[in-house]
Amino acid sequence: MTTALRRALVDLSGEAPSVRMPDLWRRGRRIRRRRRAVGILTCLLVGAAAMWLPSPTATGSQFAATDDRTLPAWVAQPYLWQQTFGADPHGPAKLVFETGHSLDLETSLVVVGRDDSFRLIYRDPGEWTGSLSPDGRYLLGGSLVDLVTGQSRTLSPAVSSQWPVVWSPDSRSAVAVVGQDDVVPTTGPDGERINDPTRLDNIVIVSVPDGSPRVVHVAEAGAFRAAFSPDGSRLAITVGRDAQDQELLVIDVATGAVQRRAPLSEQQQIAGAAAWSLDGNHLVLTFAEGCPAPTSCDESAPDRPAPHRFHLQHLDVDTGTVTDEADRGRSGQPSLIAWRQGAPVLSVTDTDGSCAIVRLPDGRSPETLPLRSAGYGCPSYPRDALEQWTLDGPPLAPSPWQAQNWAYVVVGFAALAGAALVVRLRRRWGRRSVARSSLGGSSTR
């Protein structure tokens, strides 16, 4: 190359624009920020979809078609984040029970569906959930709730929570009390009623599915208990101001006409919602031994029998004849809830709050049925299930994935934060490894 040519090239290079090298580090940083923003946006969209879209495995119509006819021997507590019934109805109930294991720290109702899924019904303090129908489809209390569709009907007038709601065997109607709560009964020195005696309680039949009440009798319902006959045509109730003056009535459901009247002592009660015998000729009563009102018993008194002792009686509806069972001194507070293989099934609550469901076959020892839950008191089972289904199924626990929608959002954000932390740590470890390798290479040189 000649000297002139070299000078010409130098001059041209001085006049030529400088080459701009791309800033690869900044470009890579922008790409990482975009990817991070896309990841966060994706998580937000997935969380929103989880909150607003229905569960792919749980709809009322699907659960209504489920036909698992086995009752579990044991049912565990729900998770604190358990899905609510209002957000995802799950069909007829296999059982319901009360629990304190919920986020609001109040007593809530657990509804276990036929597919073994768990749902929570949160209640306001003092709110009354009600009674489960024999087929497990309805809850009747402050409102009529269809467990298949999730629809709730407010009753007008509202039935009172002071007295039990009792279902007919076909689950098409129930008897309840509409009380006159605005009048406080007052009595004179001789026990006579001195305020308005005409303000009595309405005993009503609530129709399903429209929820309309029909008055069948008007009386004082302070001692109210009830039971439908097996065919649903007759209704046995106890009425009266309290246990001292209670009276047993047998009423024609269609007309409201009183067919039979019989006085009851303060020790006697209709045994429960399933108190009619299977042939419809007898009513089962419970007889409180020695202490008709357990709260008034003094266990320390030597002449007082122990409280909460009972035996059964059979009342012939036509003749009024009462026959006592041979066994005496059964312990607990009973309620006759079903008949299984021709024998009565009782839910018995003991003085410590523990519960057992027992079958009382004739001439044999009581049989404790394998039906328990981890909640409060006795679980409530559909009468049809107690009478027809298989018992002693495997223990049942809820799935942790049957969660409220917000729980999935929390889990998504936690997973995103964990993934970001892992990526950051891996990068930090990678830079340290590169630094160590470079230092090792320079030392060898």
Automatic annotation (TrEMBL):
The chain crosses the membrane at residues 36-53, 406-423. Coiled coil: none annotated. It comes from the Bacteria. Keywords: Membrane, Transmembrane, Transmembrane helix. It holds the Pfam family PD40. The keyword Signal does not apply. SUPFAM superfamilies: Tricorn protease domain 2 (SSF69322). InterPro entries: 6-blade_b-propeller_TolB-like, WD40. This is WD40 repeat domain-containing protein.
